[in-house]
């Protein structure tokens, strides 16, 4: 008689189908562990949050549970042990829906700070449990312990051996992708770029931080990027405001082009907040640029000279200087670095072609105002985890300050009452705001401090 295997029933075939489907769901994050991230990206684009690595692993667990129920399982205990162990290991390193508390508890332990070891250890536990469940000879105690022990053993070995290179998945890909997607969803697809991804990965790879600390760091990163977007929009508005000055600003544009060959971009950055080093009104090239920017309004800044309160010519000059800088400014921000860490000296900012973030802008603005005879200061504003820096120019006190504002309003086509002014309560000294837009605050600060004031 010819030996032949018994045909599988329809129910068993359904079980096999779910087992294959589960393996396919597992294969996507498994490929990402070896640096093949395209399938994970495609699935995430197609399924959104349901395509995250944690969700795919939940599908894997669910599929193997269904496969066990429909398949030829003889012992349910090893199957359940494998599934529970796999779920625990997956949830310790990935954002598994409804199980984020497990990740918060386990993420601080070294084996769970890299996702790949937990990924394969969890899969091994599930498969071992499923295979043991198919054998009628499996005893209760081994069936309960072997899937768990095999998964934990592989986790420890892979975490110690670390066969996954730096370029592969040594962090939770779902968390990185989720953070980047959140940023792009809030701010636009232009924020899905190498600099932002690098900053996100830098946060996630910090092994000395807890999960809560990393989530807070990602929140602060997104807030900095939101601040960047707001700054760029303010600059765009400033560009429109200065259109009427375009002919008067040609001298500044020409001066900037002529300076390119004379400037060195290798001037080092200074420590954040060291405006005594970053503000450089006496530097010949900085002063040359300021004078050229203000050249359409010839005459002394103040009258009497030495008072440093802008007269009509001085008011016109500060408008021109602000327009020359804001109109040509290229906003550049390293998302991995806060503006409080480093500041670009004015000479270096010129060398870069008027590029940088808020404190670089403030340092150059103050330098140019002082270079033509004015008095300036730099202010820091803080709201929650966000911060901003801007320059202000001194316009005197009382009626004198009102006259300066009237002149500035005339040259900008604005109403004097629309120009933002800071007032020192003790002295009545008034300071016109020279933020991205002249006379307009771009940042709703709750706490304001004077970071630096010229003599």
List the helices and strands and how they pair.
Elements lengths: L9 H24 L4 H10 L5 H18 L5 H18 L6 H7 L8 H19 L6 H22 L11 H15 L6 H11 L6 H31 L8 H10 L10 E2 L3 H4 L5 H10 L18 H17 L1 E2 L10 E2 L2 H6 L3 E2 L1 H14 L4 E8 L2 E12 H15 L8 E3 L5 E6 L12 E7 L2
Parallel strand pairs: 2-4
Antiparallel strand pairs: 1-3, 5-6, 5-9, 6-8, 7-8
Organism: Gracilinema caldarium (strain ATCC 51460 / DSM 7334 / H1) (Treponema caldarium)
Protein name: Transglutaminase domain-containing protein
InterPro entries: Papain-like_cys_pep_sf, Transglutaminase-like
- What is the succession of H and E elements? HHHHHHHHHHHEHHHEEHEHEEHEEE
Strand segment tally = 9
The span between the termini is 108 Å
Q: In percent, how much strand structure appears in the residues?
A: 5-15%
Oligomeric state, counting identical vs distinct chains: single chain
Mean of all residue-level pLDDT scores: 82
Q: What count of structural domains?
A: 2
The residue ranges in which pLDDT falls below 50 over 5 or more consecutive positions are: 165-174
């Amino acid at each position: 008689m010819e030996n032949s295997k018994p045909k599988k029933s329809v129910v068993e075939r359904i079980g096999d189908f779910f087992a294959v489907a589960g393996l396919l769901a597992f294969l996507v994050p498994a490929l990402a562990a070896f640096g093949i991230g395209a399938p994970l990206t495609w699935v995430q684009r197609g399924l959104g949050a349901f395509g995250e690595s944690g969700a795919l692993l939940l599908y894997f667990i669910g599929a193997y549970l269904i496969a066990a129920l429909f398949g030829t399982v003889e012992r349910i205990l090893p199957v359940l042990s494998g599934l529970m162990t796999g779920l625990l290991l997956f949830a310790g390193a990935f954002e598994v829906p409804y199980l984020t508390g497990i990740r918060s508890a386990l993420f601080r332990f070294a084996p769970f700070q890299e996702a790949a070891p937990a990924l394969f250890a969890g899969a091994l536990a599930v498969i071992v449990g499923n295979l043991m469940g198919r054998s009628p000879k499996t005893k209760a105690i081994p069936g309960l312990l072997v899937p768990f022990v095999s998964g934990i053993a592989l986790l420890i070995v892979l975490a110690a051996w670390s066969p996954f290179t730096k370029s592969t998945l040594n962090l939770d890909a779902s968390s990185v992708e989720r953070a980047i997607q959140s940023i792009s969803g809030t701010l636009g697809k232009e924020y899905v770029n190498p600099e932002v991804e690098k900053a996100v990965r830098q946060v996630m790879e910090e092994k000395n931080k807890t999960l809560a600390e990393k989530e807070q760091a990602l929140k602060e990163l997104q807030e900095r990027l939101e601040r960047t977007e707001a700054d760029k929009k303010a600059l765009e508005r400033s560009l429109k405001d200065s259109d009427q000055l375009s002919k008067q600003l040609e001298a500044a544009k020409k001066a900037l082009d002529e300076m390119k060959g004379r400037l060195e971009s290798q001037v080092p950055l200074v420590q954040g907040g060291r405006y005594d080093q970053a503000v450089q009104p006496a530097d010949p090239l900085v002063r040359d640029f300021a004078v050229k920017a203000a050249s359409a309004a010839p005459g002394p800044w103040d009258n009497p000279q030495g008072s440093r309160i802008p007269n009509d010519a001085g008011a016109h000059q500060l408008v021109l200087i602000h327009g020359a800088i804001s109109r040509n400014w290229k906003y550049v921000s390293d998302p991995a670095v806060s503006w409080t860490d480093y500041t670009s000296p004015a000479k270096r900012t010129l060398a870069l072609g008027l590029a940088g973030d808020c404190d670089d802008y403030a340092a150059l603005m103050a330098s140019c105002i002082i270079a033509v005879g004015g008095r300036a200061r730099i202010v820091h504003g803080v709201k929650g985890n966000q911060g901003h820096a801007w320059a202000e120019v001194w316009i005197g006190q009382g009626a004198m300050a009102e006259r300066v504002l009237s002149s500035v309003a005339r040259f900008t086509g604005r109403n004097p009452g629309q120009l933002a002014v800071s007032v020192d309560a003790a002295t009545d000294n008034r300071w016109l705001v020279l933020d991205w837009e002249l006379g307009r605050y771009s940042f709703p600060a709750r706490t304001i401090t004077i970071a630096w004031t010229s003599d």
